[in-house]
Amino acid sequence: MSRRSGRGRRRTPLTARLAQLAPFGAGLLLAAGLPPWGWWPLSILGVALFTRLLDHRDWWGRGGLAFGTSAGFLFPGMAWAFEFTLPGYLAAVAIVVVITGSALVLVPPTGWPTWVGVPAALALAEWTRSVVPFGGVPIATPAQTQIGGPLDQVARIGGPLLLAALVGIAGVAVARLVARSWLPAAAGAAVVVGVVALAAVAPRGQAIATMDVALVQGGGEQGTQADPESAALVYARHIDRSTDVPVGLDLVLWPENAVNVDAEDVADTPEGQDLSELARLLETTLVVGVTADVGSDGFRNEAVAWGPDGTIVDRYEKQQRVPFGEYIPLRPLVSSLADVSAVPRDAVAGTDPPILETDAGTLGVAISYETFFARITRSAVDHGGELLLVPTNAASYSTGQMPALELGASRLRAIETGRDTLQTAPTGYSAVIDDDGRVLQRTSLTEGAVLTATVERRTGATLYVRLGDLPFLAAAGVALVVGWASTKRRPIRQTGRS
């Protein structure tokens, strides 16, 4: 048998198997940029590998590549769901793989349409994940792979969609560099550098005053489940830690679910009286995460603000509920197929703007899961929010992945809105974040702690707050349509790589 060379060389079984795993490997590289790992350059290499593998593939080939890459990205990126149930984890990943893969399969298969299609598809996947299913599950997305890297500041211009697109442009530039296609590589690099430079001078708001604040983290073990006994312990720990808070600060923030009452109004409970007295003793605005009953089969997840005189001055009820965590979508159907006893009651979704009007200022609020949704914090700033509060609770997760993902999302929201951000959780992470998304202070997991800091009340709007997602979503759609229109006008070679 004659030896073949070049492209015609026969692959060995091992080489063929490795080639089949390459799409999954591209996804793993992309996932490496997510918190808590944070190796953002590897995510760009993952996009570069995806781009190289895409060349001249037909629909079936692109489908295998798109869904294989999505699986490689999301199986580790959503590993936090495995901590609750294996079937639920597999189902959740499968749904999100379909959503992400469906966007990636739309990339045209060759030439410059591929080069513009990859960033457009990543932006489309980012947007789709923010709205479906069940109102969106935007946890572990391409934009989140760049938190803490040099690209994250572009969120000030275009939020998560532009950031995801820029990951695509950088990946395409690397792919063209490897292919020694110098002009497209240089053009892609120039776009990345240009957008990052623009972000450095883009409007970011301005400080109007400073605030002295404290964040209270009661401490305790990770991996705990909600029950009356643990709820009482969480409350007691936060009361105890609050004795370390200096008197006379402008704001004291407790986490989500720090108080759980069997009443519709926390003001009518012993806990409410305690918190009223605490606010008076500390001479501060006290914001506390409260879970309260709504009838016999519902509950309210809210942030309640007490003024320095001990009266409740405002409330914000969580809008974006956690599907299968705070409510069961299609409960009658789902309950006939699975055990839903872990979520016996559905949270009631709030409808008011995500702000608290207090003596300390107008405070934007994103409760826990809401910090993954850019539209919540954009709305907070649109309604006058001068500082962002993220009271959260990740104590039910036994590992640090979800706390790290939440902290990363809060950093991204700070950049997008140009607002200092305070995140606090019963067992961590609690953090003070500036408007550049830098973590100035952070607790460790499980410790009891009080963080004190001086932060800025800020006003003014970033470009992203003004523009929102629509211009970038439209640009992504146009890029894909134009790319496919160009591809159909010219034949696609079925061999080789350009």
Topology summary:
Elements (H helix, E strand, L loop, with lengths): L12 H19 L8 H15 L4 H19 L8 H19 L6 H19 L25 H24 L3 H20 L4 E12 L10 H14 L9 E3 L5 E3 L8 H13 L2 E10 L3 E9 L5 E6 L13 H7 L8 E2 L7 E4 L2 E5 L8 H9 L4 E5 L9 H17 L3 E4 L6 E3 L5 E4 L6 E11 L3 H5 L2 H19 L10
Parallel strand pairs: 1-2, 2-4, 3-4, 5-7, 9-10, 10-11
Antiparallel strand pairs: 1-14, 4-5, 5-6, 8-9, 11-12, 12-13
Helix pairs in contact: 1-2, 1-3, 2-6, 3-4, 4-5, 5-6, 5-14, 6-7, 6-12
Description:
44% of the residues lie in helices and 16% in strands. Strands 1, 2, 3, 4, 5, 6, 7 and 14 form an eight-stranded mixed sheet that branches. A hairpin with a 5-residue loop joins β5 and β6 (312-317). The protein is α/β, with parallel strands linked by helices. It is globular, with a radius of gyration of 24 Å. The protein contains 14 helices and 14 strands. The model is unreliable at 1-8 and 492-498 (pLDDT under 50). α3 packs across α4 (86-104), α5 (111-129) packs antiparallel against α6 (155-178) and α6 crosses α12 (401-417). The protein has helices at residues 13-31, 40-54, 59-77, 86-104, 111-129, 155-178, 182-201, 228-241, 270-282, 331-337, 374-382, 401-417, 463-467, 470-488; strands spanning 206-217, 251-253, 259-261, 285-294, 298-306, 312-317, 346-347, 355-358, 361-365, 387-391, 421-424, 431-433, 439-442, 449-459. It starts with 12 loop residues before the first helix and ends in a 10-residue tail after the last helix.
